[in-house]
Design goal:
- The chain has a 6-stranded antiparallel barrel with strand order 1-2-5-4-3-12. A 6-stranded antiparallel beta barrel has the order 6-7-8-11-10-9.
- It is built from 4 helices and 12 strands, in the order ααββββββββββββαα.
- The protein is α+β, with helices and mostly antiparallel strands.
- It has 2 domains: 20-122; 127-286, Rod shape-determining protein MreC, domain 1 (Thrombin, subunit H).
- Helices cover 37% and strands 23% of the residues.
- The chain has helices spanning 20-41, 45-122, 283-286, 298-305, and strands at 127-135, 143-146, 159-161, 166-173, 178-182, 189-194, 200-206, 213-216, 230-233, 245-253, 262-267, 276-280.
- A hairpin with an 8-residue loop joins β10 and β11 (262-267).
C-alpha cells in the first residue's frame, strides 16, 4: 500500500479541541452576558415561561402523591374529630333529655303539691301528708301502699284524698306503712251526693266492663241523673267529710226490663297515677263522745219509790 494514501490525522478519540480553561472562560462570559442582558432587558422571561409551562405537568404529577397523602391524613384526623364531637353531642343531648324529663316530672309533682296545699287550706279536718310507695301485690284488688302508718297516728278507716278528690280509704294499718283501698275497688262503697239535685246515693267500685270506674247502684230508672253531674261525699257515713269530689257521671243506661238504671261514673282522683296524698281523720273520731248518765244511789231510788 503506498504511503501517500494513509490518513495521518489523529483518531476522534484523541482529538483535543479547545482547552478546558478556554471553555470555562467562554461559558462564563456567556453566562455573565445573559445575566446582565436578562437583568437589563428581561430577555429570558419568555424562555422561563416556556420552560415553566413545559415542566408544570411533571411538577403536578410529582407533587400530587404528596398532596394525596396529606389530604388523607387530614381526612382521617377530621373524621376522628367529627366522630368525637358527635359522640360528645349525643352524650350532652342524652343528659339534657334526662334533665328535661326530670324537669317535667318535677313540674307535674309541684303542680299536684300546690293543689294539695290549696285543698288542705279548705279542709278543717286534721290531715297527714303521705306518698304512694307502690301498688298492692294482689291483682284482684285495687289497693296502694303509703309511707305512713301506726307510728304516725294513722287509724283504719281514715279517708285518703289527692289533689283532685277522694282516692280511697285506709283498710289496714302497719307500724310504718298503710294499705289504702281505692274507691274503684269492687268491695269499696262510698255515700255520695249529687250536687245538681241534692239526691244522695251510694257509689260502688265497678269490677266489670267499666273497670277503673264507679257505679251508682239502686237508682230508679226515672231518677234525675244526667251525664256530667258531679258527685261529692255526703258525710252521712261518719267517715268522709262532706263536699269532697268523688266522681262525675259518665253514662246513664235506662232499661225497660230493669227497675234500676245503670249509672257509670269516672272518679275524680288519680286512681291510676297518684303520687302524693293526704290522710284525713275519720269524721266519727272528731265527734264528741256521748255523755254517760250518772246512776242514782240505791237508797235514793228506794226513797223515790216510796
Amino acid at each position: 500500500m503506498p504511503h501517500s494514501t494513509l490518513d495521518r490525522s489523529p483518531p476522534p478519540f484523541f482529538r483535543q479541541g479547545a482547552s478546558a480553561l478556554s471553555k470555562l472562560m467562554v461559558f462564563s462570559a456567556l453566562a455573565l452576558f445573559l445575566m446582565v442582558a436578562d437583568a437589563r432587558f428581561n430577555l429570558m422571561q419568555p424562555m422561563r415561561i416556556a420552560v415553566a409551562s413545559a415542566l408544570y405537568p411533571m411538577q403536578w404529577m410529582v407533587v400530587r402523591p404528596v398532596v394525596w397523602v396529606q389530604n388523607g391524613f387530614r381526612y382521617f384526623e377530621s373524621l376522628t374529630a367529627a366522630q368525637d364531637e358527635a359522640q360528645t353531642a349525643r352524650d350532652q343531648l342524652r343528659r339534657q333529655s334526662h334533665r328535661a324529663n326530670q324537669v317535667e316530672q318535677l313540674t307535674l309533682e309541684n303542680e299536684r303539691l300546690r293543689k294539695l296545699l290549696e285543698l288542705r287550706e279548705r279542709i278543717t279536718t286534721p290531715v297527714r301528708a303521705a306518698q304512694v310507695l307502690y301498688d298492692a301485690a294482689d291483682p284482684y284488688t285495687r289497693k296502694v301502699i303509703i309511707d305512713i302508718g301506726m307510728i304516725h297516728g294513722v287509724v283504719a278507716g281514715s279517708p285518703v284524698i289527692d289533689e283532685a278528690g277522694v282516692l280511697g280509704q285506709v283498710t289496714r294499718v302497719y307500724p310504718s306503712v298503710s294499705e289504702v283501698t281505692l274507691v274503684i275497688d269492687a268491695d269499696q262503697a262510698i255515700p255520695v251526693l249529687n250536687t245538681r239535685t241534692g239526691v244522695r246515693a251510694v257509689a260502688f267500685g265497678d269490677p266489670g266492663i267499666q273497670a277503673g270506674a264507679l257505679e251508682l247502684r239502686f237508682m230508679a230508672t226515672n231518677a234525675d241523673v244526667q251525664p256530667g253531674d258531679l258527685l261529692t261525699t255526703s258525710g252521712v257515713d261518719g267517715v268522709y267529710p262532706p263536699g269532697l269530689p268523688v266522681a262525675r257521671v259518665d253514662k246513664v243506661e235506662r232499661r225497660v226490663e230493669s227497675p234500676f238504671a245503670r249509672i257509670y261514673c269516672t272518679p275524680q282522683a288519680l286512681v291510676e297515677g297518684a303520687s302524693y296524698v293526704m290522710v284525713l281523720e275519720p269524721v266519727s273520731s272528731q265527734i264528741a263522745a256521748r255523755p254517760v248518765q250518772e246512776e242514782a244511789p240505791a237508797g235514793a231510788k228506794k226513797g223515790r219509790q216510796k
